[in-house]
User: Fold this.
Amino acid sequence: MHYEHEKVECIRLDDWATAVRLDRLDFVKLDAEGAEPQVIQGGAQTLMRFHPKLVTEFNPRCMIQYFSGRPQEYYSLLRTIFPKLILIESTGELSPIPNYEWLDRRIETGKGWEDLLCSF
Assistant:
């Protein structure tokens, strides 16, 4: 495989929200190719302040391969911030996620990643 590298400027969500004096946040879509835990950590204060709905990709392979991440820790981080974690089925239906083991089985027996809806 051939990958191109490009530098991009980044800012933590918490820092950006402060800088622009954000007064409302309803929805966040997050797909960072395995860096989702870092994004959530950099925006935790903003997420807890505004309680937006979050749709996030949960892709253990990218997390491990590109960031030496631990998928179960990302799941725990999401659970710490969001009381409700729901799997978005390919049909558009929503399935509550009872625990990490259930999600892990779905990912292993499915397409290798899933989209989650996280809410308050």
